[in-house]
Write a structure and sequence with these properties.
The chain is about 30% helix and about 20% strand. The chain is α+β, with helices and mostly antiparallel strands and about 675 residues long. Helix 11 (about 420-440) crosses helix 12, helix 15 packs antiparallel against helix 16 and helix 15 packs parallel to helix 17. The radius of gyration is 25 Å and the shape is globular. The two termini are about 45 Å apart.
């Protein structure tokens, strides 16, 4: 039993994470160790009510933090003011993503102890998306298949064991109250929610789950016996022979029918067959270097995990649909790391699932900008499905997520250039660019446009009151505003001349002693702020960095490699550094840093990028997604690069099929 690596099956909209039994039998043990076993969806959220009219708080109830910006006062939900703490923390924690159900085996009607399970062999067939679990329990062999339908939020489980025939092994479905914690579940508050039978036949049961103002439906179909205990929010299933089929479907609206088990199997296999056969791949294992096998393992498992967790109809949370991080809320600055890889791998259809979310939440982004007198649409950092800015010491003042949607739309368009796509998403380009231009300030003395306080850069340890022209952001502003101009020209649309003016005259990153600094007011970048993200490198790595000095960036990379505190780095920083090294023609450096043995660059047996020093992040999907963004550059190159496989040493054997070059 490896509690760092439970395995997840899913389809991007719905996911089920299982222990070694193929279900969630060891729920308590996994939760206490590190990674809770959850059943999660894109739509499944819970809001805990408060004692006020409407039962909830809004940003209007929050006392904002005031800052001065260019002679006017601006307001952000940054600090918990005295007397307003309840509102602040409620808004941070609500809505929170909900663990919809626990499915577990019971032995003789009781929970199974970990040491009772022996002779474990569990295999996740990546090509078919089917989890097969073999183990021995009470001197009997058990075989369990677990899979998720690709067309709906439906779980199918087939179990076989003599214990089923003996009536000793049964299946428990338990429905929890919502919780903002990592598990998304509270099984103690039985009086805070209801489970109501609304449809029942001999082999099927549908219940309505009501949690305060939130509700959803769970339908169970089986070839065995169904025994509901709605008072305790449980359903028991027993087999009539030595096998048991269970289909569990969850949905925000009642479903009249569920797909049969064989239909789920067929849909699941078809989905994964398309995923693996129609997308690109990078083959490394013929290389003589022993590191090739490990890098290829990370590649393959990351592809699977990102499809399961980060390829749904919403931008994902940092732990996807596996468990909760930051109350289950999405971080839009991580959207790029989660999803930008897919067009480069011939799988842009996965990115296109979540792009409409931006269109649907454009009104909230406009309101977010207008609250402080800005034009256009301002995309927040930390949000739930409602798209509303969450209070945070950092999130409201972060800006590097703003251009993401422009860059990702461009990547999707390059994979499949169609005018219809340009037309559909033009409003996002236009209004995102309008805000970017409006927040940039012209410095007449220098003749450049600047990003001035209050602002928090990628490297979040800087004070917003003194941060000016963060190194990556000013380059990102210039690059993506040029993309916005390109979109206007492709469509023959009028656009504000300020887009080009700002793009061409954005301030360049500050430098001193031959290296780039974190921002203009940070001369002690390498003495005090050599922690967290070395975001200066992103300006010539993630981006081409055409306006930057190559020698200065190379010295910056060397200083980072030598002096940065590696334990403070996050999973995606290693891909960032590898991309910079690749652009600088240093493939061995790229490879070394990509596989650096350090606490937050660990990839466990499941392939999840575990942040070893943080118990709240037992997996960290931006690490996996950033790896998949770096590999196309390393294997297929980037614009203007003539060397094949520029991110790998010359003795490596690298084959890239269906992989597009990077920017």
């Amino acid at each position: 039993v490896d509690k760092t690596s439970p395995l997840t099956v899913g389809n991007g909209e719905f996911a089920f994470t299982a222990d070694v039994t193929g279900l969630q039998s060891l729920y308590k043990e996994y939760k206490e160790a590190e990674l809770p076993l959850c059943t999660m969806s894109q739509w499944g959220w819970h809001t805990q009510p408060v004692e006020k009219t409407g039962g909830r708080y809004t940003l209007k109830d929050l006392v904002m933090t005031e800052y001065q910006y260019q002679g006017r006062t601006v307001y952000y939900p940054k600090e918990a003011k005295t007397g307003n703490e309840e509102v602040y923390h409620w808004l941070r924690q609500n809505p929170h993503r909900l663990n919809l159900a626990r499915a577990a085996f019971l032995l003789d009607g009781r929970e199974i102890a970990e040491d009772e399970i022996t002779q474990i062999r569990q295999e996740l067939d990546l090509y078919r998306g089917i989890l097969t679990s073999r183990f021995r329990l009470a001197e009997c062999d058990c075989l369990v298949e677990t899979m998720v339908d690709s067309e709906s939020d439906t779980l199918f489980v087939r179990a076989q064991s003599e214990l089923l025939k003996q009536g000793r092994l049964s299946v428990l479905l338990a429905f929890p109250y919502g919780s903002p914690d990592k598990s998304g579940a509270d099984f103690e508050k039985e009086d805070r929610h209801s489970t109501e039978i609304i449809d029942r036949t001999e082999k099927k049961l549908t219940v309505k789950r009501t949690l305060d103002s939130d509700a959803y439906y769970a339908a169970v179909e089986t070839d065995g016996e169904i025994a509901p205990d709605t008072a305790h929010h449980k359903i028991g299933l027993k087999a009539s022979g030595e096998s048991l089929d269970m289909i569990l479907g969850v949905s925000p609206e009642m479903r009249k029918t569920l797909p049969g088990g064989e239909q789920v199997r067929e849909n699941c296999i078809r989905f994964w067959k398309r995923f693996w056969e129609e997308g690109g791949i990078i083959k490394l294992h013929d290389s003589p270097d022993p590191r090739a096998a490990e890098l290829e393992r990370r590649e393959i498992l990351s592809l699977y995990l990102m499809a399961v967790n980060s390829s749904g109809s919403m931008p994902p949370q940092e732990t996807g649909l596996t468990c909760n991080s930051w109350y289950g809320k999405m971080h839009l600055e991580m959207y790029l790391w989660h999803c930008a890889w897919s067009p480069l791998w011939g799988r842009g259809y996965l990115l296109k699932r979540s792009l409409p979310w931006y269109l649907e939440h454009l009104p909230q982004a406009r309101e977010n900008a207008a609250r402080n007198g800005y034009k256009g649409a301002r995309w927040p950092k930390m949000i739930a499905g409602d798209g509303i800015d969450s209070p945070s010491k950092i999130a409201p003042l972060l800006v590097w997520q703003q251009p993401h949607i422009i860059l990702m739309l461009e990547l999707a368009y390059r994979e499949k250039p169609e005018r219809e796509f340009l037309e559909k998403y033009w409003s996002l380009i236009e209004e995102t660019a309008e805000f970017m231009v409006d927040i940039a300030v012209y410095n007449e003395e220098r003749g450049v446009y600047e990003l001035v306080s209050p602002v928090i850069p990628v490297q979040e340890c800087h004070k917003p009151e003194i941060t000016k022209n963060p190194a990556f952001e000013v380059v990102y502003w210039s690059y993506t505003l040029k993309i916005a101009v390109d979109w206007a020209k492709r469509l023959g649309r009028d656009y504000d001349p300020a887009w080009e003016e700002t793009a061409e005259h954005m301030a360049l990153p500050a430098s001193a002693d031959g290296v780039y600094l974190a921002h203009d007011n940070c001369p002690d970048t390498f003495a005090t702020f050599h922690i967290d993200h070395p975001s200066m490198l992103m300006a010539m790595g993630m981006l081409p960095g055409d306006r930057l000095d190559r020698a200065t960036m190379e010295r910056t990379l060397d200083r980072v490699l030598k002096e940065w505190q590696y334990a403070s780095l996050w999973g995606w920083d290693f891909a960032v550094m590898a991309m910079t090294a690749t652009r600088l023609g240093r493939p061995e450096t790229a490879l070394e840093i990509l596989l650096k043995d350090t606490p937050k660059n660990e990839y466990v047996a499941s392939g999840n990028n575990r942040q070893r020093l943080r118990k709240d992040l037992p997996l960290y999907l931006p690490g996996n997604g950033s790896l998949l963004l770096a590999l196309p550059m390393m294997a297929a190159g980037f614009e203007g690069c003539e060397r094949p496989a520029p991110g790998f040493p010359e003795d490596w054997v690298v084959e890239a099929e269906g992989i597009q070059t990077y920017l």
